[in-house]
Structure formats: C-alpha cells, structure tokens
C-alpha cells in the first residue's frame, strides 16, 4: 500500500490535491494521502519549544503509525507500506528515511524530485541566500529565525516566547511568517532528525529499505518561471556574476560550460545551472550514497513535451520536462489535470505499472538497480533507456558542482 506525502515546499499543498482513484483501481494499490503542518506551523523553532522545527515530520509519522495500526481494516497490508512524495514530499521521505523514530513504519520509499543531500535549492537559485533558506537547519540557525518571528509578533522575550506565541491567533502567526521571508524547514541535530538526510546517507544511518528515486530533466525551469526572473530577465553581466558566486574556483569552467549558445537566453542557461547543481548532481551523489546500503533504483523523467500543471513555463524555458511534470502521468491532479497525448498516456500507464510493481515487491520491473549497474533509467515517450552514471555526470557538469 501507498502513503503519499504531498509536495509544496513544506509550506503549501494538501493531500487532497491528488485524486488517486485511477492509480488505486488500475494498479490494485491501497492509497492513503495525508496532510501535515506546513510553514511556521510545521517547522517553527524557538528555544524551549518541544518538537520545534519538526512538527510536520511528527505529523507524517503519526500518519504512518495510523496506517500500521489500521491498514488491515480497509484492505491494506501493514507489512508492505511504501512512503512516497514529490518535491517537499520527497524531502519529507528523505527525512523519514533518516529518522530513527520512523524505523519499521514503512518498507519501501519513493523520492520524486527530492533533495536528500545538503545542497540548498534556494542557494542554488539565488547564490548568497545562506543557511537561513536551507532545507535542513541546525538549531543554531533555526532558533534565531523563530525568535525573530516571535519578536515581530510582540513576543520579545526569548525566555517566554513559547508561551507568548501560543496566545497569537493563527492567522496573525501565518501573516507574520509570510512577511518574514524566512523559510521554515526541519531542524536537525535532535528529536526525530538527529542529523540531516545527507549526513545520514553518508554515514549509512538510514532505514534499510528499497528506494525508487529520481528527478526530471529540467527541474530548475519551474523556479525561473515567475517572480524576479520572469519580470527582469538575466543579462550576461548578471548571469556571469551569479555563476561566479555559485561555482567559486571553477567559475571560468562553469561560465564556459553554461554560457548560452544558439539564441538561448541567460534565464535558460541559469535554469540549467540550477538543475545541475541542486538536482542532477546532488541527486547523483544521493543515488551513490543510498546504493551503498539500500537497493536503489534511479530515474530521470525526460518527456520533452510534458505539460506542467504547476505553472506556465515561459517560451524560453520550454523544451524539457520541468519540476512536477511527471505527476499527471502517475496521478490525477485535482486542480487541473493537463491533457496528454496518446504517447504520453502510454508512458503514464508504463510508469504507473512500474511504480506499483516497486510498491508490491521492491523492484521496478526490468530496471537495473544502481548497485548492479551504476545507471539512471531515462523515461521518455520513446521508451526507457539506461544512462551510465559517468555519462550522466558529464552531461550535467557534475565535476564543477562536486564541492
């Protein structure tokens, strides 16, 4: 059976965003979708707050325990549970793999476009963003953010901030958190997350379960489709400065590798940098780390004409699958299921069967494990192919982003 953890960057989204009936009926899988506390409600941390910075993860574990205790009553198998998620949901699955408190609550894991490693997505998009916008924060970083929010809401004494915040109306707390510009994400180093998922993977301190994990080909394009990048496209000067900040001592090599050619825009080039740095290369390291202990199956979703239901992608960023583009191939999106061609529908059927097969027995059909063959399975409407890990690394300039 499947427990689905929704995405949304740990600050938005809901389990009800996904209609799982087609997947459940077609693949004979019992599906549970769940909600968890988001934003400051899920991940605010201040000194003295028991469970601070981890409430969202605790909610997910409560859902997994409920499934364990009740699955048999509605036709599920509590001894064969897959926890899966995309984007922020994928990050959540990373956290549950690394959490000792989640041990035994699931038996397979699916991570779609997650960031298990310690490369900050926000730092990759906006060099210089710093640790306050990282996905995984030690208390020394997380608690000052909470103290600052508390102070902005009139709770100016850190010693009494916890009790004071409990008296702040929820809408006011939400508004204050939004205005703060902070990214409230899991606190590491205590409680249910003694270390970051990246550290846990490197040290072999993760749940010993099969893992199906992957990315889409142009993850970064979605994040350059709105806001400042759309309103004020990058110039060559700005692009060069950002690449220099991102690549450090390998800046000259990175500029040569990513400077656009053939009429491509600097926004498009920066999208490639973000994709490679925050997802392709970071996840290749995760594939390698996971496979040291766990049966690991890696994929890249690469349907070049895949529609994106999450945002309108500007013309200069189209031509490759973007963050979230695989979702309508697997599930029905309640807020707007895009139309797929016959070839895309066939790819979707194949993916659903593959995902369900993995949920049943821990293997995605004929895909090789990363242990047996260091390769990534590439998914397109033309079929599946295997890309050698070294070739994948070269295509995404992973030597530049090895630090």
From TrEMBL:
Its EC number is 3.1.1.-. Residues 2-401 form the Carboxylesterase type B domain. GO terms for molecular function: carboxylic ester hydrolase activity. It comes from the Bacteria. It holds the Pfam family COesterase. The keyword Hydrolase applies. Keywords: Hydrolase. PANTHER family: ACETYLCHOLINESTERASE (PTHR43918), CARBOXYLIC ESTER HYDROLASE (PTHR43918:SF4). Belongs to the type-B carboxylesterase/lipase family. This is Carboxylic ester hydrolase. It comes from Actinokineospora bangkokensis. The lineage of its organism: Bacteria, Bacillati, Actinomycetota, Actinomycetes, Pseudonocardiales.
């Amino acid at each position: 059976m499947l427990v689905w953890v929704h995405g949304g960057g740990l600050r938005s989204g809901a389990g009800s965003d996904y209609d799982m009936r087609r997947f459940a009926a077609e693949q004979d899988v019992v599906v549970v979708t769940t909600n968890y506390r988001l934003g400051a409600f899920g991940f605010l941390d201040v000194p003295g707050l028991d469970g601070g910075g981890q409430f969202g993860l605790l909610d997910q574990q409560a859902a997994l325990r409920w499934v364990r205790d009740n699955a048999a009553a509605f036709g599920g198998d509590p001894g064969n549970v897959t926890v899966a998620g995309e984007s922020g949901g994928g990050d959540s699955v990373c956290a549950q793999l690394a959490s000792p408190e989640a041990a035994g609550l699931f038996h397979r894991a699916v991570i779609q476009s997650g960031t298990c490693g310690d490369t900050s997505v926000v730092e990759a998009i906006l060099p210089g963003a710093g640790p306050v916008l990282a996905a995984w924060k030690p208390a020394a970083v997380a608690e000052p953010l909470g103290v600052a929010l508390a102070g902005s809401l009139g709770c100016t004494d850190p010693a009494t901030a916890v009790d004071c915040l409990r008296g702040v109306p929820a809408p006011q707390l939400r508004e204050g958190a939004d205005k703060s510009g902070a990214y409230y994400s899991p606190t590491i180093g205590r409680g249910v997350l003694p270390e970051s998922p990246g550290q846990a993977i490197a040290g072999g301190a993760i749940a010993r379960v099969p893992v199906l994990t992957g990315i889409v080909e142009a993850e970064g394009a979605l994040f350059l489709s709105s806001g400042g990048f759309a309103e004020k496209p990058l110039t060559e000067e700005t692009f060069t400065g950002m690449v220099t900040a991102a690549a450090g001592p390998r800046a000259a090599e990175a500029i040569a590798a990513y400077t656009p050619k053939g009429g491509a825009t600097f926004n498009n080039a920066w999208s490639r940098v973000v994709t490679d740095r925050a997802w392709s290369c970071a996840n290749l390291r995760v594939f390698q780390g996971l496979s040291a202990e766990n049966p690991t199956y890696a994929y890249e979703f690469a349907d070049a004409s895949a529609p994106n239901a999450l945002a309108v992608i500007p013309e200069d960023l189209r031509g490759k699958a973007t963050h979230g583009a695989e979702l309508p191939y697997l599930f029905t999106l309640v807020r707007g299921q895009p139309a797929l061609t016959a070839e895309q529908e066939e790819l979707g059927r194949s993916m659903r069967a593959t995902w369900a097969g993995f949920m049943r027995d821990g293997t995605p059909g004929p895909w090789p494990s990363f242990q047996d063959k260091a390769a990534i399975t590439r998914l397109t409407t033309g079929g599946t192919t295997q890309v050698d890990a070294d070739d994948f690394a070269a295509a995404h300039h992973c030597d530049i982003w090895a630090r």
